[in-house]
């Protein structure tokens, strides 16, 4: 009977250890790794919510302001956290979507390299409903065989002959 309690305690300890690794150590290690490479981001990290609380506050504040009818710059209204954080932290910044780290890249050359990844080096995260609503479920969000298929279909439309017309 005593060995069953010991086994249960070992299993419980392993589970607690894994939870601590996921919720506390992993965010610290990821942030430290990116900071060494010069990528910073919002400083606050809530172990379950990440940066979601700040994102909600920014969304509420953005909805309070009235948008100019003649402006086509909707980023400030639709995704204010991207607009604010990119102005504070530059073209690349790290933020947390719950316990999942995300990096935002606004540099056009890096975005081009990531979107034209043919070897699968850059894994695209699952898109949130707000992103799907904003940009749809197109080439930017597809992976693997679906991405290759859509890319083949779209390539002729962007040839130099078609773009010159």
From TrEMBL:
InterPro entries: Cyt_P450, Cyt_P450_sf, Cytochrome_P450_Monooxygen. GO terms for molecular function: heme binding; iron ion binding; monooxygenase activity; oxidoreductase activity, acting on paired donors, with incorporation or reduction of molecular oxygen. It is found in: Membrane. The keyword Heme applies. Keywords: Heme, Iron, Membrane, Metal-binding, Monooxygenase, Oxidoreductase, Transmembrane, Transmembrane helix. One of its GO terms (cellular component) is membrane. It comes from the Eukaryota. The chain crosses the membrane at residues 6-25. It is a single-pass membrane protein. SUPFAM superfamilies: Cytochrome P450. Belongs to the cytochrome P450 family. This is Cytochrome P450. It comes from Pisum sativum.
